[in-house]
């Protein structure tokens, strides 16, 4: 997969990019965990997500947030990283003008950034939020959440306790016109140690079902005259 360097808001950003053979293929953007706790685009889960989308014909990009690897700039507590993600999506879209839709997948801190990007970009039609941390980050901006997606967490996650993730899921599930799918990986911690294969199996199953036209939200009930 080609190494790429593209311009971000705080300097150059380093990424790995795999274009699809199809000009109009959807784009997948993969966002890594917290930069100050060892998160990089080479995180195993981020790499596996990249490969999963690539195998299914997506044009796929993962990149290092500012200050990580060869990406310039300094950690910016989320605001700058959201701008990095928006710049990354702009960069891929500039190379693939025929691509009309996009997915975003984020893990941990990356899930929070991905959900914020979702609010800004109407072309994002699907998301995967892996081990989001509603106990640490404010997700109240999801009002309303514009796209259907998967939220998946570990049953034994002490960083993002299950009850907090369940609260976020229940809040989003009340919204009409989207379908939130929630999966829990039994006995898994925040890092899915020994459980990455199970996690990826759930993500693959979800993506395949979406691509097959399943998991469609129920239409709003018609009013009876």
Tell me what you see in this structure.
By secondary structure, this protein is of the alpha/beta class. It has one domain (3-212): 3-Layer(aba) Sandwich (Rossmann fold). The chain is built from five helices and eight strands, in the order βββαβαβαββαβα. It is globular and about 40 Å long. The relative contact order is 0.14. Residues 17-138 form the Xaa-Pro dipeptidyl-peptidase-like domain.
How many structural domains?
1
The name of the CATH architecture is 3-Layer(aba) Sandwich
Q: What is the count of helical runs?
A: 5
- For this structure, what is the CATH homologous superfamily? Alpha/Beta hydrolase fold, catalytic domain
- Classification by helices and strands: alpha/beta
| Main β-sheet description | 8 strands, mixed
Q: Give a count of the beta strands, DSSP E runs of length 2 or more.
A: 8
Radius of gyration: 17 Å
Remind me, CATH topology?
Rossmann fold
Please give the alpha-carbon distance between the first and last residues.
58 Å
Q: Can you tell me the CATH class? A: Alpha Beta
Report the uncertain regions: none
What order do the helices and strands come in, and which of them pair?
Elements (H helix, E strand, L loop, with lengths): L2 E6 L2 E8 L8 E5 L12 H12 L3 E5 L15 H17 L6 E6 L1 H12 L3 E7 L17 E7 L7 H12 L6 E6 L10 H16 L14
Parallel strand pairs: 3-4, 3-5, 5-6, 6-7, 7-8
Antiparallel strand pairs: 1-2, 2-4
Protein name: Xaa-Pro dipeptidyl-peptidase-like domain-containing protein
InterPro entries: AB_hydrolase_fold, Xaa-Pro-like_dom
GO molecular function: hydrolase activity
């Amino acid at each position: 997969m080609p190494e790429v360097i593209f311009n971000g808001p705080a300097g150059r950003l380093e990424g790995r990019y795999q274009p699809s053979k199809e000009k109009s293929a959807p784009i997948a953007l993969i966002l890594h965990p917290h930069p100050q706790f060892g998160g990089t685009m080479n995180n195993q889960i981020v790499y596996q997500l990249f490969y999963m989308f690539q195998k299914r014909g997506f044009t796929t990009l993962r990149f290092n947030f500012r200050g990580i690897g060869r990406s310039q700039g300094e950690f910016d507590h989320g605001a700058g990283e959201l701008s990095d993600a928006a710049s990354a999506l702009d960069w891929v879209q500039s190379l693939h003008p025929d691509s009309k839709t996009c997915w975003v997948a984020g893990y941990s801190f990356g899930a929070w950034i991905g959900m914020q990007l979702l609010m800004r970009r109407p072309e994002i039609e699907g998301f995967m939020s892996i081990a989001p941390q509603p106990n640490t980050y404010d997700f109240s901006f999801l009002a309303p959440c514009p796209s259907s997606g998967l939220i998946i967490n570990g049953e034994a996650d002490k960083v993002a306790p299950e009850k907090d993730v369940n609260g976020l899921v229940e809040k989003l599930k009340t919204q009409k016109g989207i379908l939130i799918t929630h999966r829990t990986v039994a006995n898994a911690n925040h890092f899915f140690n020994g459980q990455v294969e199970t996690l990826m199996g759930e993500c693959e199953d979800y993506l395949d079902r979406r691509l097959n036209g399943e998991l469609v939200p129920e239409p709003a009930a018609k009013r009876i005259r």
